Amino acid sequence: MLEGIVRESISSKATKALRKDGYLIANIYAKGLANINAAFKVNDFLRTVKNKDSLKFQVKVAGKTYEVVVVEYQKHPVTNELKHVDLKVVLPDVVSKYYIPVVASGTPIGLKNKGLLLISKRRLAVKCAGKDLPNSFVIDVNPLDLDDSVLVRDIPVPAGVSMVEPASVAVLGVVKAK
Asked: DSSP characters for 120-174?
């Protein structure tokens, strides 16, 4: 479990001091919950996020444990160092908006015909309660040939989950290599 500290001050001077000590600045929020300004050790955070087996993971701040998902992160434009992360608390019975990753499984037929697999949407927006939150959308790309694509409406959606994206948006497809 990832453990963090509560930031007493949110001033830029205090933020710079925390970053210098190896901390990642984070905001934790949810509907009906007061925002928590927190900080985590950068290496611990990266290790936890890379080794998690589901979309949500647990963090402990100020003695309380929260199940969270990463909503957004910011990196330094030159060094690519992680600077800030927004975490949303997953509440089991509250319907909220989440971004679910898209995973392509298999090898398309179109790759043998000099095509390229193009993933245009890496994450899809959905609305669901925390208990219905899927880990990812796994899409079988084996039957795709040149100029074939998978639209949002073609993706099977679990019960209790509704898509926010328009149904006619292409998620991935096989295009001809130039």
From this structure: --SEEEEEEEGGG--S-EEEE-TT--TT-EEEGGGS---TTEEE-S-TT-EEEEE
Strand, helix or coil at 92? Answer: coil
pLDDT in tens, 52-61: 888 999 999 9
DSSP single-letter state for residue 111: G
C-alpha closest to that of 126 among 173, 93, 91, 158: 158
Give the pLDDT of residue 177: 82
Backbone angles phi, psi at 43, to 5 degrees: -65, -40
Q: What is the pLDDT of residue 8?
A: 87
- Looking at the DSSP assignment, which residues form a beta bridge with residue 26? 38, 85
124-142: per-residue pLDDT in tens?
A: 999 999 899 999 999 999 9
Contact 48, 82 (CB under 8 A): no
This prediction has a pTM of 0.84
Domains, the chain, in order of start with CATH, read: 2-90 (2.40.240.10), 97-176 (2.170.120.20)
What are the b/e assignments for 94-118, b being 16+ CB within 10 Å?
eebebbbebebeeebbbbeeebebe
